[in-house]
Amino acid sequence: xxxxxFAIISKAEDGDLASAIFDYSIMALIVLSxxxxxxxxxxxxxxxxxxxxxxxxxxxxxxxxxxxxxxIWTADLLYxxxxxxxVKYVLSFMAxxxxxxxxxxxxxxxxxxxxxxRMIRLFRLFRLLRIFKLGRxxxxxxxxxxxxxxxxxxxxxxxxICMFVMLFSAIIMYTVENPVQPEQFxxxxxSLWWAICTLTTVGYGDVYPITTxxxxxxAVISLVGIGIIAIPTGIIAGGFSNxxxxxxxxKEEKHYCPYCGKSLDK
Amino acid sequence: xxxxxFAIISKAEDGDLASAIFDYSIMALIVLSxxxxxxxxxxxxxxxxxxxxxxxxxxxxxxxxxxxxxxIWTADLLYxxxxxxxVKYVLSFMAxxxxxxxxxxxxxxxxxxxxxxRMIRLFRLFRLLRIFKLGRxxxxxxxxxxxxxxxxxxxxxxxxICMFVMLFSAIIMYTVENPVQPEQFxxxxxSLWWAICTLTTVGYGDVYPITTxxxxxxAVISLVGIGIIAIPTGIIAGGFSNxxxxxxxxKEEKHYCPYCGKSLDK
Amino acid sequence: xxxxxFAIISKAEDGDLASAIFDYSIMALIVLSxxxxxxxxxxxxxxxxxxxxxxxxxxxxxxxxxxxxxxIWTADLLYxxxxxxxVKYVLSFMAxxxxxxxxxxxxxxxxxxxxxxRMIRLFRLFRLLRIFKLGRxxxxxxxxxxxxxxxxxxxxxxxxICMFVMLFSAIIMYTVENPVQPEQFxxxxxSLWWAICTLTTVGYGDVYPITTxxxxxxAVISLVGIGIIAIPTGIIAGGFSNxxxxxxxxKEEKHYCPYCGKSLDK
Amino acid sequence: xxxxxFAIISKAEDGDLASAIFDYSIMALIVLSxxxxxxxxxxxxxxxxxxxxxxxxxxxxxxxxxxxxxxIWTADLLYxxxxxxxVKYVLSFMAxxxxxxxxxxxxxxxxxxxxxxRMIRLFRLFRLLRIFKLGRxxxxxxxxxxxxxxxxxxxxxxxxICMFVMLFSAIIMYTVENPVQPEQFxxxxxSLWWAICTLTTVGYGDVYPITTxxxxxxAVISLVGIGIIAIPTGIIAGGFSNxxxxxxxxKEEKHYCPYCGKSLDK
Lengths: 266, 266, 266, 266
Known about the structure:
Number of domains of chain A: 2
Structural class of chain A: mainly alpha
Number of strands of chain A: 0
Number of helices of chain A: 15
Strand content of chain A: under 5%
Order of helices and strands of chain A: HHHHHHHHHHHHHHH
Shape of chain A: flat
Largest interface: A-D, 59 and 57 residues
Helix content of chain A: over 70%
Radius of gyration of chain A: 27 Å
Oligomer: homotetramer
CATH superfamily of the largest domain in chain A: Voltage-gated potassium channels. Chain C
């Protein structure tokens, strides 16, 4: 029976109807759960259907709890070679997300604060990630993840450089603009908000320099901003270019030995 | 005679004057039709030349209708190997667009609502796509379409990741900013508008966070926004990089050994 | 003497001091001329030093005129193999720019309108392009021009697709938003302004949708905007990737004949 | 003893505890020093803990001064082959930054102006760059620096083209918009602010064209802006694409013929 339950909660094999029904039901419940977060944000809907939302919440948490326990129980079938399969599963990323999505509802002191509760329920969004495992775009996702992982070190350095430039810009801008617009640039942290808006080229327009010196520095920083965006884009583009050409090259490449002339491709 | 009509409505062969005249007349009518949509949006012009616009509309729909019928009639010449050429043509993308551009004018209950009618007439814009078939840039378009198709799965995944991040950002921002600016962030859907404006770096500046916590999350989301843009750009750049190098490699591939004169391509 | 004048106005050879002095004097005069356009835009400076600006203008036009005549006169030394070297030179891009920069000052009916005159003087900016010929970054510029030329057809198609999407967006947005904000979206052309601001992700924030339907379409259009930017970026990135790897590959590539094993690289 | 001091102030070798403690203490002091700049920007904190900030400042400058002198003293061990190791070190980039971070505090006429002093203290941010030398992401940084250096000439040309387009746009926009909005476009330099905001797609929304002619030019300039961003992104992407594929190719290059066993690499 344990094997059967494991088969059901695992990704459905072709022809296993019960497992497929289970997969899609859980998916539907996650989507509905996220939808209920959106709907509850409408004041009038939240008040009108308050009891409905409560019931749905209880049902959702109950189902997710049973699923969570079942997954831990069958962890030894998931990791047959592991010494401590249950511990290993509990500490996996998806299991922690699953726990975060249900745990707060068993802790009354947390669930008392409605705002904090909503934040916690956000973890259910991560449960949506399971959808990717079902879909036929899984290979495409794996390529994206692979490219990002390959260039992770360079991307982290770009972010660090970006933060360095932001801090630098913020301190300069605070010094230049604070005496003229103390409301907009009250301190370095507030000035950092401007720096981020500018370097990411979002540019809301709530804070901007008005002095000539400030505008000069802002112009230089904006131009640097293009570079700041260009570096990670370039890294990722380079990564994809090689990921694609690498897979194509393997197919097309033909090598011959210069000594005996025989083909080196088998 | 059917063959002659088919030759005329198909893309003009060199020297077939009647067909070329037909092609360019239809193109001119489509462009004029789009222009009339633009001009009618000016209140004073629409009122002044109301009758002129009506007459032009009737003429346009009449010509497009005749063309549509002629194309269905000659569909068996377009798809000589197909069992049901007429059905196949009617269900093709361009034929559906053509139908959408004329059908509403035969349905009085639709054409009664002027606003809806204008939306429907937008389908004529799609008829503009036929221009691409005439132009000399057709090869360049085919390369773009080819690259986008090749990386379609990865681009779809990027869009899905993007939507996931947007929903996530919107819920966080609603939770943080709603108590302070209930007007700007009344619910999650309104908050989603902010998330889209920020992640695409458009940043109109109609909605932006004012709390410190909100600004912190907005800063993180903006930086993620750069990554969100960088991924599809990287995918497309990688695609083009390989499309160009691939086509160049094929040209250069015809080599012969200068010593024994044998072809090096197998 | 003609040969000497030609040597002076051409790009200076090493050691030719007179030619080098001429080159840098003309450059300085062009830069000063552009600077005077900027300075004259300050109302108080323009009024205070009005006579100075007039004298400088006369001197500049006089020098540029003499240079222009000298260049035409020596055109037969520039194009020794051409049948009509003077005509060929007069019709070259740089010569037309040079003429545009001086001609208006000999036509009193044009120079009467100060605003139009300023626009005309902008052609002097194009004269700045001569600086590139002097500089040591000329090779880098040639690579950029080469890559842009190689992908010109695809870039043009991207711009056409971009305009198509803009027109489409503008008509939808006008239809949706006009009844609610007739001031912001009075007609399709005004709506096009919004579409351009959004698709290029500039987002000034002077015009933005306020209806839910409008925001939904704006969100879709913003996301399409990322793609619209990603395509030309991808094309250019692909072009540079191949331009660089192409030049490197030539150096590193080693081919061997599969039949006789001899090196194919000489 | 000199050798020991040199070992301590140099990057710590494995097992050298004193040196590691020194490295991380200096890092901590730099980070704290930057933090104090941020904290002092809060008016109330600056007033309340004025004496604390003064003491911390004196301590920081004292430590940095001792470190600076020690580094100069041991410069002959850093550059054993140089004739003038002390002069060489004093003129190195990091040494100049180090000096800039302490020198102003010994010059009373500079330290009198508080605002200027804060700007000067920004040089301490550059001292943060030393962190990169410690970190394990040093290789990733070197690749980024290498790619940027390789494409430096092309990037400089892009910036020059960008500035050319900006100046051009500013003069056109001033001419078109100045008569209608003299407040927003008072002169060419102010108009340049608009051009930079638009071409970098930041778009604060503090200045934008309102005339139809101005909007037309702004639309064209915005579209050019996409290209302006696409060129450096493309250059950097191309550089990374080749840097990655180049390093991968080198690793894979060691092949042997399976038939005759000879090395295929020469």
